[in-house]
Amino acid sequence: MTTQEWKFTAKDIATKPDLFLSGHRACAGCGPAAMLRLIMKATRGPTIVTQATGCMEIVGSIYPYSSWAVPWLHTAFENAAANASGIEAALKVMRKKGKIKQEHIDVIALAGDGGTIDIGLQALSGAVERGHDFLFVLYDNEGYMNTGIQRSGGTPTGAATTTTPAGSVNPGKLEKKKPITEIMLAHDMQYVATATPYYWKDMLTKVRKGLEIEGPAFLHVFAPCPRGWRTEPAKTIEYSKLSVESCVFPIWEAVNGKRQLSTPSKLIALAPQKKKPVKAYLEGQGRFRHLFTPRNAHVLDEMQRSTDERWQRLLQKCE
Amino acid sequence: MTQKVKQETVAMNGDEAVAFAVKQCDVDVVAAYPITPQTIIVEKFSEYVANGEVQTEFVCTESEHSAMTACLAASATGARTFTASASAGLALMHEMLFVTSGSRAPVVMAVANRALSAPLNIHGDHSDSMAERDSGWLHIYVENAQEAYDSIVQAFKIAEDVGISLPIIVGLDGFTISHTLERVDVLSEDVVKEFVGERQFPMVLTHEGKTVPFKLDPENPMTMGPNALQNYYFEFKRQQQEGMNNALKRIQEVNIEYAKISGRSYGNGLIDAYQLEDAEIAIVCIGSTAGTLKVIVDQLRQEGVKAGVLRLRTFRPLPVEELQNALKKIKAVAVMDKSMSPGGLGAAVFNEVRNALYDLTQRPIMVNYIFGLGGRDYSPRDLRRVFEDLTKIAKTGQVEKQVNYLGLRE
Description:
The complex is a heterodimer of chains A (319) and B (410). Chain A is built from 13 helices and 8 strands. With 319 residues, chain A is an alpha/beta fold. Chain A has a single domain, classed as Rossmann fold (3-Layer(aba) Sandwich). Chain B is α/β, with parallel strands linked by helices. In chain B, 39% of the residues lie in helices and 20% in strands. Chain B is built from 12 helices and 18 strands. In chain B, helix 1 runs parallel beside helix 6 (145-159), helix 3 runs parallel beside helix 4 (87-102) and helix 6 crosses helix 8. Classes of the chains: A alpha/beta (319), B alpha/beta (410). Strand 2 (72-74) of chain A pairs parallel with strand 11 (223-224) of chain B, so a sheet runs across the interface.
């Protein structure tokens, strides 16, 4: 396999043909759809995409239409990584037997936070343990948005969903967000990274790095969902930016377990005064609206405290 | 049978016979999870992999759900694919069995038929695959280790036929066949490879008007496993029935083609009728029970009793016409079921066979015997008693109990 010279410029993005095509049925302002279109610009050659059931699977594949200009497979909800295992195993053996012309075909598995963090975790863990050569991209919109905005293991504390509504007793979700990247790092993976569409060059670079790794790679993309978050569609990318600026979702990459902050988060680490309060990120999100009341002020304080604590812990883990 | 080729006789249990057949069929991907319960099929195949005797990518998954998923995905990518499962493992695959057949992936699966919990029991009966009756898979049930070997070879040819393109279960009775050493005649690898041939793909029309093979191929990007809503889903499902219809004919052809190279055939491929032509009473069963029943029929015939056996080899697609023709003149028929449908009128095989005969003007009186659950042993004497019951029913026209439990403490 030849490693191409690559860097992503606005011109590259504008001129490279789309592989996730327009005409899909995503909502206005959909963060995951913007992410998907962008990450497909970072492919390096023949690529097969497989997806777990979820928003992004539904919107792009309603028969007889398809938004996919690459070979694409969906089978079920909990098994995107098992799909990738089967595809990769087939490609490997058929190449050995001379049944495939292409020198190399990349495999990308895509799943939402439910399909990754909750129901899909077993298949993901198994596929990574077996060392299949594929990139797993988690698009995290922090809930089961496609099915009606239910809580997931990726939903943050305090968020109101249809299964963790803000009530007279409970201020939204009581539990913490599951630390999926830490779980994946514990698998001793060669490449684990976080990204979000506002920092698109960073995100595309990470996609390409993940593809170039021979073996499993994991990319956690934070992708705001206007419907589920009760935010203005026009502000999706702004929330993507705020998530990093408030250190709610710092971006970093870990190559062979060595973790480094990516530039936007590194700048905050170097100049802590630039770090925005969590409130700035939460404000305007309907799912957190109930927190901006005197009764729930303590929840907001706790969210700031836990965000700071996670950030400090991350800084200690970075080189 | 003049073209019959030289064969080697070996001692193998049913599981080993299956693994050996898979080895000879040039399978690209085997994905399996061998623990719920474990099967010798995958262990034996792993030895072939470890010794470099096969060019197969073996994916030892973390669950049966992922095993079936990986098989489906590999098959969609163009690979010839095999897996094995049973009991709880098959039940865990349930969701993916429907996705695999709906995706028209011709995966071949051996099921060493066993019981389902609870209570926990991993011994032989047909509860596991009967629960998958409506999953859209072809079902073939074998009588012994020899037929297990032969049927796996045939299974790839049937499933991958472009007019069928459906996955297939080859069921072999847990322990009775899977773990019992038998004499098995095997063909040479070259002969098997030639018989099975390279995997063929249905050709489909793209939106650009090109005709391309139905698989994941970067040169012809295809969206596989899409959403089909109220406006298309129904048509997809109806097409699966077409595949099943085509299989009725193809299974019979493959049975004949295979006989030409091996000298072995199993009835007409769909049903295996024994002493049925002039029979007045008969037992219908699937699997290894047929072997014992044939011996009993021979004894009864010597005693002047006109008894016969029908072994239903192909359960899906159900050979309705063959069942009608074989059973219409018989006075009383007992259908043996090694599974239950609690709350229903009898169990799966009874329901199917009785349903198939309903429209005949002349049809036998039919009774159901549920037996052997959880590996409960049944003796030739037990089975002989069923024939005795049938003789009484044929004579009197009276049925005491339509659904009976054989060998049960009540």
